Amino acid sequence: MATAAPRAHRQSLEWPVLVSVLCSPQNYPLYIRSVPTENELKFHYTVHTSLDVVDEKISAMGKALVDQRELYLGLLYPTEDYKVYGYVTNSKVKFVMVVDSSNTALRDNEIRSMFRKLHNSYTDIMCNPFYNPGDRIHSRAFDNTVNSMMMQVC
Amino acid sequence: MDELVPAKYFSVVTSEERNYTEFQITEVCGAKRVGYFGPAQFYIALKLIAAAQSGFPVRIESIKNELPLPRFMALKNDSEVRYGTPAELHGAKFQVPHATLEKNSYKRTDEGDKQSSAVSWRGLGEEQKVEIVDETDRESLSAEREQPESSAHYSDDPWRITEEQRDYYINQFRSLQPDLNSFISGSVAKNFFTKSKLPIPELSHIWELSDVDCDGALTLPEFCAAFHLVVARKNGYQLPEKLPETLLPEYLQAALKVSTALKTIPKEFQHLTMKTAAQESNALKARPRSRSYSSTSIEDAMKKGEEPPTPPPRPQKSHSRASSLDLNKIFQQNTQAVRSGWLPPPPPALPPRPSVSQTEQVSEVELHPQMNRPPSQAEENSSAKKEVVLTQPPSKPARRKLRTETQGLETPELSPTINVTSSLPAVKPHLPVQKQSSKQKRAIQTAIRKNKEANAVLARLNSELQQQLKEVHKERIALETQLEQLRPVTVL
């Protein structure tokens, strides 16, 4: 564990965002992008469980007061190692991001702007007539956007 | 094809030979006697050239030796064609083993005006048909693409669209959409490109590359780019990761060239000019994409999608836009602030990029009602930068392609500025580096002054917006905490 900690610390400097996931309204993943380390499966599991929290927040809103503020769901679930943030679009596509807790430089509005970028990129993909909503996302441009977003601290 | 090669062509071919040797060769091969170069004489002459080049004496016996192939420096394509055809053997009368010509020069060479490819002679006696142009690619074209595009691939760059290709694409565009200035919608384009029988992921990638403003529709230049990529893919080219410069629509091509040209400027000016170039390209990219996600439901979002790119000023909503800015408030406040001439303290040297792009988007939307400002600003910036680019060519021979294109671009657009800078291109490339850099610096400084003014305006906007943002955030946090208190606590 002593070796894992400095490695994780290094990771958090290079890759502030550990995992980005896009989920369809039916809760299957459209796109998963994670830092290539061990424990990827653990992150996948975490994201999957955090979908429950997302659903809860969506249903809790209830009324038609869905607007930009409600698109960003904020911190879903903090653990000691990492935090999970959520965002939902108007068409109920969910974005989930896992961020390293030791990276204190990432503030809330930065997470917001990252989600906004993700949303923009997702909209670009939707504009592509060859993309059927509900397919897995294979776009190289989208990959590049997500990579650059995950690697740099905005 | 006429087999008699007049003597003057022969001398063109052998122009690097010493004259005396050439004289000897013409004598020995019998042309002098006969008065012309028939096929036999030509073959003998070429064999003698090979002999002479390898140092053997020019004698009839020399052709019996095993000689390496003669090397020629071919000067023009046309002459190669002419030399090519006489080399066809139809029952050679003489035993001239090294007599066939194969054309290497018509392969795709890299860009370069002078095709100084050596014409090398293969030493095999069998009959070989001369391949003048590689027509082999014709077969790979599908029936729908029956145009002479194969020849077009052998211009400098496979990603460059030739005139005939462009005409063909324009005709296809017309068949889908009669108005050349409007769009082809996504579904129409999808059906059309699916006919090309490329796999769907590749078509998807082609779409991503060519739809640069990401609006789900193709304008004429975007359509040409997409079509060209489809054709290239069918001919076996791999699709690039990024759209090649030559396929970009013109307004982005200019911005891209300017920004790449700016990379040659010494580093101390680079950060300023790169920022403005980035701002300009961001502005150009952001112009069609004023997306706001503050819609209240899917239906509202769809309705807004049908409006023109700039959303009309919305009625004042108190808390419907929290993290995205309320553009109405800012617009009014901004015009007031501008009128009152309030200058905020200067911003930090390199503001973080998202706020740059954000302010660009917001400022684009704001200034849209005053339509003149963004295009004139962009024009100002681009004209200032093109001045700079004009001074680049003498000192940067490596940017040859850039120079010819920018010169081509600039002449129709910038005749006033060319008068101003007409003295500068007269700078000889042999000036010492310091003089060049000082002249560059002067030109750059004028460009910088103009860009700084633009920067100041944008910086003002930026700081105002940042302040607004902070206030709105505070409000929002307060409201959220209230909301949390009111909600029942969820235990995980």
From TrEMBL, chain A:
A cellular component annotation (GO) from this entry: perinuclear region of cytoplasm
Coiled coil: none
InterPro entries, per the entry: Longin-like_dom_sf (IPR011012), Sedlin (IPR006722), TRAPPC2L (IPR044760)
GO BP term, example: endoplasmic reticulum to Golgi vesicle-mediated transport
Keyword set, alphabetical order: Cytoplasm, Endoplasmic reticulum, ER-Golgi transport, Golgi apparatus, Transport
Record's subcellular location: Cytoplasm, Perinuclear region; Endoplasmic reticulum; Golgi apparatus
One Pfam family cited in the UniProt record for this chain: Sedlin_N
Main location: cytoplasm
Record keyword Magnesium present: no
Family to which the UniProt record says this protein belongs: Belongs to the TRAPP small subunits family. Sedlin subfamily.
Name of the molecule in the record: Trafficking protein particle complex subunit 2-like protein
Annotated source species: Limosa lapponica baueri
Higher taxonomy: Eukaryota, Metazoa, Chordata, Craniata, Vertebrata
Automatic annotation (TrEMBL), chain B:
Classification via CDD domains: EH (cd00052)
EF-hand domain sequence ranges: 198-233
Keyword Coiled coil attached: yes
EH domain residues: 165-250
GO cellular component, one term: plasma membrane
Coiled-coil stretches noted in the UniProt entry, renumbered to this chain: 444-482
Disordered, as annotated region: 132-156, 280-323, 338-420
Keywords, comma-separated and alphabetical: Calcium, Coiled coil, Metal-binding, Phosphoprotein, Repeat
GO MF terms held by the record: calcium ion binding
Chain intervals with Pro residues compositional bias: 343-354
Pfam families: EH
Keyword Repeat appears in the UniProt entry: yes
GO BP annotations listed: endocytosis; endosomal transport
Biased composition, class Basic and acidic residues, residue ranges: 138-156
Compositional bias per record (Polar residues), positions renumbered to this chain: 405-420
Protein known as: Ralbp1-associated eps domain-containing protein 2
Protein's organism: Limosa lapponica baueri
